[in-house]
Amino acid sequence: MNTIKQHHSLQMQVRFKSTEEMSI
């Protein structure tokens, strides 16, 4: 369960990063 939560937060970080790059 903890691993799934970590993976989810990692995906969100990557998503946020790629969104930031796209808006620049």
Polypeptide structure, described:
The mean pLDDT is 79. This protein is rod-shaped. It has one helix and no strands. With 24 residues, the chain is mainly alpha-helical. The protein has one helix spanning 2-23.
Principal-axis shape: rod-shaped
Q: Largest sheet, described in full?
A: none
Percent range of helical residues: over 70%
Mean pLDDT: 79
So how many helices? 1
* Beta-strand content estimate: under 5%
Q: Structural class per helix/strand content?
A: mainly alpha
Rg, Å, rounded: 11 Å
Topology record:
Elements: H1 2-23
Question: In a nutshell, what does this entry contain?
Answer:
The chain has 24 residues and is mostly helical. It has one helix spanning 2-23.
State the main characteristics.
24 residues, mainly alpha, 1 helix, 0% strand, rod-shaped
